[in-house]
Design goal:
- It contains five helices and five strands.
- By secondary structure, the protein is mainly alpha-helical.
- The chain has one domain.
- The chain starts with a helix and ends in a 9-residue tail after the last strand.
Amino acid sequence: MFKKTQRRAAAGFTLLELLFVIGIIAILMGITASGYIAYIRHARETRCHDKIVQAEIALSKMKGMTGWPSIIINNVKNNEGLLDENVCRKFTHSSNIFTQTENASHLLRGADRFGIVTVWAETFLEENPKASKTTDIPGGGTVRDHIFRFSVDKEDSPGVCVANVGGVTIKVRKTAIVWCCGANGEFEPYGADGSDDIYSWTDDQVVK
């Protein structure tokens, strides 16, 4: 009996045991990979949120310093919340918060509001210098969809911003607000379940 046990041990793993070990390793790798992907997604969302908050602060300061009427900053021509390009030049020169402001080599300089885009578009534009506003972003949407949206308060209602967010008109108790789509490149209606849009305000600041 002792000799038989010795022979089996010398033979090494059986095929079933080997498959079992491979299965365990695959499961562990899957758990690790999914955790890493979730971490990267959360890190990008956090960085994008920080970026729009900085943009809001800079926009509020710019409005206070320039004294420009809200109609100029809000660019009412398209009612989309896209910042007027002339305002953007002033905005970016007075704000050192956008990675593509000074040394942008891609052809969108100016057209993409000087790099005022989501982190997903920012990464894509760095790798694709010849992209246009209609170029698709791998995660979803076009470059244009990933441009930040803005609103500032009006003279007849100081301290309250009115904006069309995903097709829903809202009022927010702030001097300026900034928002953007998430990784999917789509603007969902404000407050919709599963929306990955990112806002510079909290829900309790919305006028009900």
